[in-house]
Amino acid sequence: MSQSQKSIEQNQVQNSDKKSNEMLNTEEAELLNFLLKDSRGTFDFQGKKIAFIMGSSGSRILSKADYFIQINPWLERGNNPQIFMVLLTPEQKDRSGGYDAFVLSWVKVFTDRKKDKVIDGLAVRYR
């Protein structure tokens, strides 16, 4: 990871607000764009609403601040966390309460059924 990317991440963690919403700021979007550069295609995280999911079965939904705190130790050691993304369809975005995508870390299995449960859970949690 470049020094500038590490600086961006450290700045984000220092400025995290546990009560902030899931809309990404510029530094967060740049970090996710960097970490997922090989798999995101043309998707740009700038200004997007993202749900952060962890746990081997994808059952833990984290706040944005908690997610970046969780991955910070990996970044500080110069490693990339295990991370991938799932884009939501327009219908899934509507059902979820406006989320554009999920960012998953350390998730072993994430089925369509689990995705639907998360979408429905977000709808209840954030509407």
UniProtKB/TrEMBL annotation:
InterPro entries to which the protein is assigned, alphabetical: DUF8192
DUF8192 domain segment(s): 21-118
Region (Disordered) residue spans: 1-22
Sequence ranges of Polar residues compositional bias: 1-15
Domain of life: Bacteria
The protein's name: DUF8192 domain-containing protein
Species the sequence originates in: Pedobacter aquae
